[in-house]
Design brief:
The complex is a heterodimer of chains A (310) and B (255). In chain A, β7, α6 and β8 form a beta-alpha-beta unit. Chain A is 34% helix and 29% strand. In chain A, α3 packs parallel to α5. Classes of the chains: A alpha/beta (310), B mainly alpha (255). Chain A: This is ABC transporter ATP-binding protein.
Chain lengths: 310, 255
C-alpha cells in the first residue's frame, strides 16, 4: 500500500505561475524516493503541498491513508519536514527548539527520545548552545533533529546536504539509511545527483511542473544508461578511418583517443567486432577503459530533451 | 487527536519564554514609561488640577494608563509573535504541524494576552505607590482587563499576519491606536470637552473601552457600562471573524 498517494495535483499561484500541472505519484512505504529537477521545476511546491504549507489548486494527497486536508491532523503527525532554507529560531537553544517541535506535533514530552535524536546527530554536546552560535552544518543537523523529534513515518528532505561539507554529507547518508531500516519512508530532493544515485530506490524527474519520469533507479540507469569505451591509441589518427564507419566513433585528445559510445544493454555491443577490426587495420592501442553514464548524465539529457521539446 | 494540547502549550510556552528572555523590553520598559506618566501627568499637572468626578486626577488617569499599555503591548506582542516566524521563515513548522487555526490563535493570542494582562496588573501595582486607588468592581475590572487584552491581541495577530515589513507592524499601533487612546479619554473625561468635540469623540471606539474600565474602578464612566461591554464584545467578535477568515483562506500565510 502506498504511504503517499498524490492524484491530479495542480498548483497555480496568484501570480498566474502554474507550478504543478497535474501530478500523479505513489510512494511505497519504506522506500527512498529522490525527486530531481532543475530550479523552479516545482519540487518545493510539491513538498510544501504534501506538508500543508501550500494549498493545492486541485487534486488530492493522502499520507498513510489520511487526506492532507480533511484529515490533516493524522496526516501531518506522520510527516517530518527538513526544509531547504536554514530557518531556525536564532535565540533558542538546541534542546529547547527540538523539544518545541515534538510538542508542536502533538507528542507528549519524552526527554530520553530527544536525547537519542540529538546524540544520533552529534548535537548532544551542543544542546545548551544558542542556535545562532552554531555553524551552518550544525544548524542543518538541528533542522533534521526537529523533523525527527515527533517520530515521523514519512520524512521529507528538501536539499538536505546543500552547502554542507563532505563529512556531514556522508553522515547524513548513513542517517537516512538507518531511518529506512526503521521503516521510515524518505522523500528526498537534491541537486547532488550522486546523492540520489547513492541512496534512492526510485527516482522521479520533475520539469516545469510535470513529473516526466518515475522509475526504479537501477532500471532507469539500465534503460537510459550509455557506456563509453575509450581506446588510447599507440599512434594518433588524423580522422576516423572509413572502414570503421559501422561504429559510432569519435576522435578525442588530438587523435590520440578513440571513443566509442554504445548501448550497455544491447545484445551485441559491437565491442569485440571493433577490437577485431582495429587489429585488422593495424591500429594499435596502449590502454582502454569503459565508463557507465551516471544518473547525472541521464538527468541532464532528460532535462535537455524535454526542455527542447517544450 | 481532536485537540492538540501539546501543540498549543508548546507555542504558548515558546512565546512566554521569549518575553522572559526580553524582560527589559517586555515588562520593565512599559513599567518605567507608565511611572513617568504618573510623575508628569499625576504629579506635575495633576497637582494643579481639580478632581474629576470626585476622583483625584492622579487616580483618575490610572485606568486610562493601564488601557494604553494593554492596547500597545497586546498589539505588539501578538503581531511580533506571528510576524517574526513569517520573517525568519520558521512559520513553515507551524503550518506543517497538526495544529488547527483555532489552536494557533489560542496559543499566540493566549500568550500575548497573558503578557499584557500581567503587565496591566504590574502597572496597577506600580500606580498604587503613587496615587490612592479604589476598585469598586474588581470582577468587572478583571473581566475588562482580560477581554481587552485578548481582543487587542487578536487585533495584533491580524496586523502581524497582514504586515509585509517592520514598518507596517508599527504603523497601526503608532499612527492609529496611540492617538485614539490619547483622544479617547485616557487622561480626561469627555465631559470636559466642548459639545461638538464630545460628539466627535463618541465615534472613537477606544472611548467605550476606557470608559468601561474606569467604571470598574470608580463606578463612573463617559458612557453607560452596558454600551462599553457591548462595544468591547463587538470589537472582539470582529477581530475573531477576521482571524478565522485569514486562516480559512490562507491569507498571507499560505501560498
Amino acid at each position: 500500500m502506498p504511504v503517499i498517494e498524490i492524484e491530479g495535483l495542480t498548483k497555480t499561484y496568484k501570480s498566474g505561475l502554474q507550478a504543478l500541472k497535474r501530478v500523479d505519484l505513489s510512494i511505497a512505504k519504506g522506500e527512498i524516493f529522490a525527486l530531481l529537477g532543475p530550479n523552479g521545476a516545482g519540487k518545493t511546491t510539491l513538498i510544501s503541498i504534501v506538508c500543508g504549507i501550500v494549498t493545492p489548486t486541485t487534486g488530492t494527497v493522502t499520507a498513510d491513508g489520511h487526506d492532507i486536508q480533511s484529515d490533516f491532523r493524522a496526516a501531518r503527525t506522520k510527516i517530518g519536514l527538513v526544509p531547504q532554507e536554514l530557518t531556525t529560531d536564532a535565540f533558542e537553544t538546541v534542546l529547547a527548539t527540538v523539544t518545541f517541535s515534538r510538542g508542536l506535533f502533538g507528542k507528549a514530552p519524552n526527554p530520553a527520545f530527544i536525547e537519542g535524536v540529538l546524540k544520533d546527530l552529534s548535537l548532544w554536546d551542543k544542546r545548551d548552545a544558542k542556535i545562532m552560535t552554531l555553524s551552518g552544518g550544525m544548524k542543518r543537523r538541528v533542522m533534521i533533529a526537529k523533523a525527527l523529534s515527533h517520530e515521523p513515518d514519512i520524512l521529507f528532505l528538501n536539499e538536505p546536504t546543500a552547502g554542507v561539507d563532505v563529512e556531514l554529507r556522508r553522515d547524513m547518508w548513513a542517517m537516512v539509511r538507518k531511518l529506512r531500516e526503521r521503516g521510515v519512508t524518505i522523500i528526498l530532493t537534491t541537486h547532488y545527483i550522486e546523492e540520489a544515485e547513492e541512496m534512492a530506490d526510485r527516482v522521479g524527474v520533475i520539469l516545469k511542473g510535470e513529473l516526466i519520469l518515475v522509475e526504479e533507479k537501477t532500471a532507469l540507469m539500465k534503460k537510459l544508461g550509455k557506456k563509453t569505451l575509450t581506446l588510447n591509441l599507440v599512434e594518433p589518427l588524423d580522422a576516423v578511418p572509413a572502414d570503421l564507419s559501422d561504429w559510432d566513433l569519435t576522435l578525442k585528445n588530438e587523435g590520440g583517443e578513440l571513443e566509442y559510445s554504445f548501448d550497455a544493454n544491447a545484445e551485441d555491443t559491437g565491442v569485440p567486432a571493433l577490437i577485431r577490426r582495429l587489429e585488422a587495420l593495424n591500429i594499435g592501442f596502449k590502454d582502454l577503459n569503459t565508463r557507465q553514464s551516471s544518473l547525472e548524465d541521464i538527468f541532464v539529457s532528460l532535462v535537455h530533451r524535454n526542455g527542447a521539446a517544450a | 487527536m481532536t485537540f492538540n494540547g501539546y501543540g498549543v502549550w508548546a507555542i504558548y510556552r515558546f512565546e512566554m519564554a521569549r518575553a522572559l528572555r526580553t524582560i527589559w523590553q517586555s515588562i520593565v520598559t512599559p513599567v518605567i514609561t507608565t511611572a513617568l506618566y504618573f510623575v508628569v501627568f499625576g504629579g506635575a499637572i495633576g497637582s494643579r488640577m481639580q478632581e474629576v468626578g470626585g476622583v483625584p486626577y492622579g487616580a483618575f488617569i490610572v485606568p486610562g494608563l493601564i488601557m494604553l499599555s494593554l492596547f500597545t503591548q497586546s498589539i505588539f506582542n501578538a503581531s511580533f509573535g506571528i510576524y517574526f516566524p513569517k520573517f525568519t521563515g520558521t512559520i513553515y513548522e507551524i503550518l506543517s504541524a497538526p495544529v488547527s487555526s483555532l489552536e494557533i490563535v489560542l496559543a499566540y493570542v493566549g500568550a500575548a494576552a497573558t503578557k499584557s494582562a500581567v503587565l496591566g496588573l504590574i502597572i496597577l501595582g506600580t500606580a498604587a505607590f503613587f496615587v490612592p486607588l479604589q476598585i469598586l468592581h474588581p470582577i468587572w475590572m478583571m473581566t475588562f482587563l482580560i477581554l481587552i487584552s485578548v481582543t487587542f491581541s487578536l487585533f495584533g495577530f491580524i496586523i502581524g499576519v497582514w504586515a509585509d515589513g517592520f514598518e507596517q507592524l508599527q504603523m497601526i499601533p503608532m499612527l492609529i491606536v496611540t492617538p485614539l487612546t490619547f483622544l479617547g479619554g485616557a487622561f480626561y473625561s469627555i465631559d470636559m470637552l466642548p459639545e461638538g468635540w464630545r460628539t466627535v469623540t463618541l465615534f472613537n471606539p477606544v472611548v467605550y473601552l476606557i470608559s468601561g474600565f474606569r467604571w470598574a474602578f470608580y463606578g463612573q464612566g463617559d458612557v453607560a457600562i452596558g454600551i462599553s461591554v457591548a462595544a468591547t464584545l463587538a470589537f472582539f467578535a470582529v477581530c475573531l471573524a477576521i482571524v478565522m477568515w485569514m486562516f480559512k483562506t490562507g491569507y498571507r500565510l499560505k501560498n
